[in-house]
Amino acid sequence: MSTESIPTINVLFKEAKRKFAELDAYSSSTREAHEHQNALCTLHKEFSMIQSMVERLDFFSDNESFEEISTSYIPFLALDYYIASVSMRLEFGELNRAVDDDARRQYKLKCLHEARRRFLQFLETLAFFGSVLNSEDVQLLKLLKDGSSSDVNLSTVMKNPYERRKAKIKNFKRRKELEDKLRYLDQSFTKRGSDVEEIKREYFIDEIRLLVLNTLDNIFSIDMEMGMLEKMPPHDQTNYTPSMHSKKDQALRVEEVPGKKRIDDLIGPGGKILQPFTITKTKADIRNAVFGYSHTLPSMSVDEYLEYELMHGKLLNATNTKEEQDEHSENSDEELYARNWDDWKDDHPKGSGNMKANIG
Question: Looking at the record, which segments are called Disordered (predicted)?
């Protein structure tokens, strides 16, 4: 094999970053695919191999400042960032997808711990050489380094909602400015040529600063996810079903009060309530209702409901109603005629007409 066919470390790094951008653009459902996880594992190995090559070639020295670093070496300062970004996206990696939930949770926690450590290493490297991080980034890095991952994290550093919102707005403005500046510098490469040393160096530095903003957001997400995974109960406890208890226990199930777990402590003799309590559903019903509807769905159509009401005599059939109305109308006319005839007989006694006719 000729030396011309061997890819250089710059080519390998650019290709690895291109693959990462493609994999990161996939949808969340695709990221769970076994092929996608295998691709992430392969990419993790490629970035790690490139980092080993950089260490063997001594691109960076502890005795030099950031201004003394070669312009072409600056992008390699982000290797820890890319390794961490791949690690935090691993769900089950090369494990079998059908592995149990506990094994996947432990694997995910391991990947998140590695990602957090790599992100901090990325920030520490930049802080060591200087000229990239601002004073606020350095202060935040110091707070993150002073304690363990469970004691100090971004969520505890910015507990005040107002301060957290202000930091988000500030980071958003910084991100927008950096993205606009990178687009402008990219156009400068095209117009003036990529051999302009000052433009290349400024572009690489701003690209690193944009990755710093992503790093702070990723650490915040990692801390939240690790907190939830560490508090998650084992898989055998999450498979609880009400059938594990007898029907008698289910019938007497009430909300437990600390120190008083028997129903006799809540309801005294004669049904007297000793202290307030709440009758709850089973855990399965409550869990299923979380993603359910907020209202009761209909169990029958309108036609079925009307038929049910007619069968039980709660509604009258239209035909019967019309016949009853006609019958009621006829009865009313007969009654009216009889009432009028009675009134006439009262006003005209029997024989009164003949008596008047025979009077001289």
Answer: 320-360
